[in-house]
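job 3f2a | input accepted
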Amino acid sequence: MKLALTCAIAMLAMACMQKQADGTYTATTSTAASDAAKKAHDDVVKSGEEIKKTTEDIGKSDAAQKIKNGSVELGRGVKEGLGQVAQKAGEGLQKAGKKAEDDVKKTETAAKH
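job 3f2a | predicted structure (113 res):
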């Protein structure tokens, strides 16, 4: 919005320039141009306020709240699922470790006889 306003003002300023005989440019003082620039500025401010109000209204809506709450629940579900997977992996690793220890003990016992 600010960029659009800046560009509009710059374009209006360029339109108001008149080339002098010596090759320089000077701005003409036209009240129509300044009135147009003020109106453009006021319109941009009004549009910005309307967008802000609409955005706030959307954020307060039931749908937005449901989406927010759903996101939180989804995050909790993912954490819980990851925790369960980690526990299962831990159990599997413990079993594999125990089996490896047992295999080593069996090998040592067989080597002694």
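job 3f2a | The mean pLDDT is 79.
job 3f2a | closed
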